[in-house]
Amino acid sequence: MNLSWSFYQIWNESIEQGRPQRVLEPRNKIWASELGGAFIDRFLKMKGVAPSNPPNPRSLRKFEAGNIWEAIIGFVLMRAGILQNKQEYLTYQYEGSFPVNGKLDYIAGGKPDYDKAVFTIVQEFDWLPEFISRAMQNIVEKLKGQFPNGLPEIILEVKSCSSYMFEQYEAKQTGSRQHKLQAFHYLKAKPMKEAHIVYISKDDARLLEVGVFNPSSIEQEYQEDIQKITNYLTKDEQPPLEKPIVFDIDTGRFIANWKVGYSNYLTMIYHIENQMVFDNLYKPKATKWNRVLGRIKADKNLTQNNIQAIKEIEKEGFDIDELLKTFAGKQEDDEV
Questions:
Q1: In terms of Cα–Cα distance, which of 175, 176, 174, 185 is closest to 226?
Q2: What is the pTM of this model?
Q3: Is cis: bond before 215, omega within 30 of 0?
Q4: According to the model, what pLDDT value does residue 333 have?
Q5: Which of 278, 281, 325, 285 has the alpha carbon at shortest distance from 305?
Q6: Parallel, antiparallel, or unpaired: how do β-strands 245-248 and 253-256 relate?
Q7: Which long-range contacts does 318-326 make (Cβ < 8 Å, 24+ apart)?
Q8: Distances in whole angstroms, Cα of residue 20 to Cα of each of 31, 171, 300
């Protein structure tokens, strides 16, 4: 039976075609969202090199799904009476380095009229989904009880993620290095003392906030990152490629390097067709290397395959003894 018309087709096409693609041109300014990313990718983008692996339709839809959650947070802040500013464009530049530009998501705080906020939510926004209206009212009531004289103003940077990544952030009670550098840029440029990265699990609407502060030790990372990419561009010196497998200090395990798998230049510089091919190549190898470390840590006998894996690890420049100090993997009995 043929459908008379298709809403899903209109929806998908609208999202995929509705976002204008930025034309890559040579530039000497850094986007705040690029901080902490792979230097090789950033170098090529800033040189205006066309990507071999541009975002596919699924990636674009995931990006827009993040924008939907960001908009919902903004709407809640506005109706609660604590939204002070949004999408403010901020630039900061150290002497001798390229400028960093970016737009913060929200500034929230101040002294709202709590009673007016509740009245507005109940009387004027009954068309909202019930759970959002209920959440708004609860937020206002809690703020009224905890901060009767108003709230300090802070920057909120909203990031949506899968439940898997959300649980990683929640377990570590920290955000990604990239997100912290981006949030710090807004603090430095504004200037302000405190920013919160707000993580939203797209699967179940859980929220987590991670604080970033100014001043803090993150400024050293921020400045070094800026200076490093500035030097590469100024000298016209292409940065080294990323390693396909890295040891993640936060989790204490080998992981397939997402900076390679998600590279817009994956085919051009790594000669890998797409992310799926990358995952199939390197995720099993990372698992194998973790298993070997687990056997060594458990003082188990090593097979010939184990010994071969150790040689692979050492060939990539890793020190087994140093890795074992922070390795947090589970004991594995399977041979590799």
A1: 185
A2: 0.89
A3: yes
A4: 44
A5: 285
A6: antiparallel
A7: 318/247, 320/293, 320/296, 323/247, 323/293, 324/293, 324/296, 324/297, 326/249, 326/252
A8: 18, 37, 56
Amino acid at 328: A
Is the pLDDT at 330 greater than 60, yes or no? no
User: What are residue 185's phi and psi, to 5 degrees?
Assistant: -55, -45
CATH 3.90.320.10 range(s) for the chain read: 23-112+150-227
**Residue (of 254, 235, 253, 229) closest to 244 by Cα position:** 254
Fold category of 23-112+150-227 in CATH? Lambda Exonuclease; Chain A (3.90.320)
* 240 and 40 Cβ atoms separated by less than 8 Å: yes
Amino acid identity of residue 88, one-letter, is: E
CA distance from start to end of the chain: 52
Hey, which bits of the chain come out as E strands? Answer: 30-31, 83-86, 89-92, 100-103, 106-110, 151-161, 194-201, 207-213, 245-248, 253-256
Q: Hey, which residues does 89 pair with through a beta bridge?
A: 103
SS3 of 171-236: HHCCCCHHHHHHHHHHHHHCCCCEEEEEEEECCCCCEEEEEEECCCCHHHHHHHHHHHHHHHHHHC
Instruction: Say if residues 229 and 39 touch (Cβ distance below 8 Å).
Output: yes
pLDDT band at 335 (very low <50, low <70, confident <90, very high): very low
